[in-house]
């Protein structure tokens, strides 16, 4: 059967319309809140292919001004397709932050510099707070005072938490004289709006990004292969593993935990622990790969975090761009570890508490951040008294303990409310040893459990093996790489139960 895809009178097979939807071409350029533009959507891949051909041509001809404007326009279009008209807010944030920061950098009087820095930080945090926390604040005031305050429905702009943090880091780095201002407002807009990292990170420092803008594109064969490898791995993580286990198992259990057995609840927690890693690290892999294709090197945002032997190590491996930002611009600003042990513990806990609140305007995120902050304090306290033996057994035990603490915390992160989180925990608490029952459940969700097993196996593969696979891919002939890409797209199509699913971190 053939279905009409409204492009004149051209007919396409059903598998094409399943991927692209029943859309006319004009709608591809208009924002649809029900179908935002995603890295894992065929529409984006097609648009990027066209964009990249022109981008490479422009850079090779050294038309720097046109190249900047071209990428900014495409980035703003991408943001518009992903989040609507809030691209105007993004431009205002970029222009105001750059102009005020440049003025601050040029002023010599320290008092004036501090006032300008405070103004920049307050303006950016004020914008973030208005869009992200106003409704949360009003809901809590109503709950405490039994009031009936109401406010207009505020829609959170996609990626605001990321580009606000980038704007603040730019201003602080200029204040600390750790870098020079961008050469122009256009250059700063290029940095802030750079689409691969715009809507869900990684959070890139301007002092690391801006110098790369002024270099000519020089992409080696190895870098191009690495970029393609990262994009394909990201697609597998997101579209094959994360989306499938989410829509076919994890979401169902977390939406109604008491409708499922204790074993299913436990497996849903393990499933979500893998899902959020594959979802977010998959996005980061694609963002880093796309950036590399355009000549920009972005450091890894994840380093197999579930191999961590402590929560301290976990935060050196998980969402590295956020954890390092919190360390450099919040923890150190609070005093870090320079003002005694008690103050260090307080600073550490507050940093993680605020980090939790950064993820979302909800007490469940505060709980999640507080749990991580609390265990970081406990680890730091006992580290001075207890020396853990360094052998294989203790390493395995530490990895298992760390993994299960992280998985426990994810319950609060994922559950729709404290009540649902409590239902999941209490249900798991009733788990009994019933292998026959477990086998029936595993058989019922066979494909889900196969993907969960594959996901964890891939995650825990030795680093040397992974590097050898990357090296093998780099040395693979172009035709075979194209075949592998085709196989991955077939896997995505085969496992797709609905359209492309939004990334979890889009909501932050």
| Helical run tally | 20
Rg to the nearest angstrom? 24 Å
How many runs of DSSP E, i.e. beta strands?
2
Major sheet strand order = 1-2
List low-pLDDT spans. 1-10
* DSSP strand content: under 5%
Could you give the order of the helices and strands? Answer: EEHHHHHHHHHHHHHHHHHHHH
* Structural shape: globular
Helix content: 55-70%
Mean pLDDT: 89
Oligomer: single chain
Class derived from helix and strand content? mainly alpha
The count of domains is 4
Largest sheet features: 2 strands, antiparallel
- For the record, give the distance between the C-alpha atoms at the N and C termini, rounded to a whole number: 41 Å
Describe the fold and architecture:
Helix 13 runs antiparallel to helix 14. A two-stranded antiparallel sheet has the order 1-2. By secondary structure, the protein is an all-alpha fold. The protein has 4 domains: 30 residues, no CATH class; 132 residues, no CATH class; 154 residues; 112 residues, no CATH class. The chain has 20 helices and 2 strands. It is globular. The N terminus is likely disordered.
């Amino acid at each position: 059967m053939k279905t009409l895809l409204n492009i004149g009178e051209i007919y396409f097979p059903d598998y094409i319309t399943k991927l692209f939807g029943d859309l006319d071409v004009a709608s591809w350029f208009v924002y649809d809140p029900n179908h935002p533009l995603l890295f894992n959507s065929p529409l984006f891949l097609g648009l990027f292919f066209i964009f990249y051909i022109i981008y490479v041509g422009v850079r090779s001809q050294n038309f720097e001004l046109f190249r900047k404007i071209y990428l900014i326009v495409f980035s703003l279009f991408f943001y518009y397709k992903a989040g609507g008209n809030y691209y105007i807010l993004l431009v205002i944030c970029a222009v105001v932050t750059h102009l005020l920061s440049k003025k601050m950098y040029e002023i010599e009087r320290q008092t004036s510099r501090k006032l300008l820095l405070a103004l920049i930080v307050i303006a950016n945090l004020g914008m973030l707070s208005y869009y992200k926390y106003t409704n949360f604040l009003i809901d809590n005031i109503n709950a405490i005072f039994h009031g009936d305050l109401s406010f207009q429905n505020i829609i959170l702009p996609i990626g605001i938490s990321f580009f606000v943090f980038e704007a603040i880091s730019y201003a602080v780095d200029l204040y600390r004289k750790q870098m020079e201002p961008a050469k122009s407002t256009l250059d700063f807009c290029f940095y802030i709006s750079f689409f691969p990292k715009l809507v869900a990170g990684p959070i890139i420092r301007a002092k690391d990004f801006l110098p790369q803008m002024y270099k000519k594109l020089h992409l080696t064969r190895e870098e191009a292969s690495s970029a393609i490898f990262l994009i394909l791995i990201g697609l597998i993580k997101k579209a094959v593993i994360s989306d499938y286990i989410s829509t076919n198992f994890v979401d169902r259990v977390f939406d109604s935990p008491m409708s499922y057995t204790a074993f299913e609840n436990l497996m849903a927690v393990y499933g979500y622990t893998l899902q959020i890693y594959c979802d977010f690290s998959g996005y980061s892999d694609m963002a880093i790969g796309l950036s590399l294709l355009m000549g920009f090197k972005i450091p890894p945002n994840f380093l197999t975090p579930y191999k961590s032997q402590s929560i301290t190590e976990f935060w050196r491996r998980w969402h590295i761009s956020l954890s390092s930002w919190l360390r450099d611009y919040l923890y150190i600003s609070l005093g870090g570890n320079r003002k005694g042990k008690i103050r260090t513990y307080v600073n550490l806990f507050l940093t993680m508490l605020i980090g939790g609140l950064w993820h979302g305007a909800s007490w469940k995120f505060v709980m999640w951040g507080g749990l991580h902050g609390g265990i970081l304090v406990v680890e730091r306290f006992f580290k001075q008294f207890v020396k853990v033996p360094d052998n294989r057994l203790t390493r395995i035990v530490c990895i298992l303990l760390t993994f299960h603490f992280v998985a426990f915390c994810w319950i609060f992160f994922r559950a729709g409310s404290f009540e649902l989180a409590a239902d999941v925990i209490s249900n798991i608490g009733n788990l009994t040893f019933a292998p026959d029952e477990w086998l029936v459940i595993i058989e019922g969700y066979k494909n889900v459990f196969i993907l969960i097993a594959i996901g964890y196996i891939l995650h825990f593969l030795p680093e040397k093996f992974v590097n050898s696979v990357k090296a093998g891919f780099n040395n693979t002939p172009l035709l075979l790489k194209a075949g592998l890409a085709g196989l991955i797209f077939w896997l995505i199509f085969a496992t797709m139960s609905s359209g492309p699913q939004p990334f979890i971190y889009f909501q932050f």
